[in-house]
Amino acid sequence: MKNIQPITPELIYVGASDRRTALFENIYPIPRGVSYNSYLLLDEHTALVDTCDASVREQFLENVEAALGERRLDYLIVNHMEPDHAATMMDVLSRHPEATVVATAKAVQMIEQFFGTQAASSQIVKEGDTLSLGRHQLVFTMAPMVHWPEVMMTYDQTDKILFSADAFGTFGALSGNLFADEVNFEGEWLNDARRYYINIVGKYGQPVQTVLKKAAALDIRMICPLHGPVWRSNLEYFIGKHDVWSRYEPEDKGVVIIYGSIYGHTEAAALRLGALLSERGIKQIKAYDASRTHVSKLVAECFRSSHIVLASSTYNNGIFTPMESLLLDLKAHSWQKRTVALIENGTWAATSGRLMRAELEQMKEITIVGETVSLKSAAQPSQEEQLAALADAIVASI
Ligand code: FEO
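That is the input. Now the predicted structure with MU-OXO-diiron docked in place:
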């Protein structure tokens, strides 16, 4: 059954949501699913803005045909060639071989790489190029590395709508409500939006800043991203979040405790530090077991918070593997501008503190606060003082 939704009288949502795939990009858990958004403009000429992932192929193709009715497809605008958006483009083109693909030169090259063929008709566009559909005047603006090099955005000058590719997207399937102002975004979506942004695009803060500056010069009344709800109000709220994230600034002043603990002793010390921080007035402390929390969530939490406690056992003379993975991932995402406190543990030769510090020293503007608390198997009663001193140091730096 078709499932299309009008956005404006001439713009129709033809995307679809996927609640069956467990891992987005075969790496990120998506328990709330994900939507693959596609938009059809019906003007004197018709234009489909991006296609969908193969997981929603049938629904998507049915939606496109239903929205087009008897009309032909004149243009397929490809803002982004990653397969979660482009996997079904050849299905569309086989039904509408007359359509002209509008894309960047790099995207056209990727079409060849992925499909071994090209559309019958292609139009390569670059920064500032325009396309008239009749009433709607589209202008293309390049957005390289947000989050692939071929990415562009399409701005509808007529209705002031930005088709923003991956930017301003989020994990989470749509449940009927298409607009961000129809859902509890702050309560139910923001964590997934942050996790999506940080893990998918987080490494590319500078290109995102460039795009935000370009966007600031446009009169944007609506943002149509490739994942998640459409924004038609309170745009500055979500743009502001992306500004903070892409400048690598913390969203919240507070403490996140992450521990890698084999038998629970490192965990106990980390949680004792949490209690000592609470006694000193720190609120909304969050603690996570690195072995049981997906690293994508840990990375997102490290981006959210200003202060992070990392507590790790020593393992194979190194950092306990889940904590080591987190540090590698943080480095890969250019994590920076944070304050970190360390707890290490080792029954005969604790090395994890020194090694965590060495990893952190390779990142930008990471301040390590207080003395590393070093446990030998388990925290001894005499070490309460050391934990208290670390809590004092953390509080003093907030
Ligand atoms: Fe949603 Fe970069 O693809």
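The CA atoms of residues 152 and 305 lie 31 Å apart.
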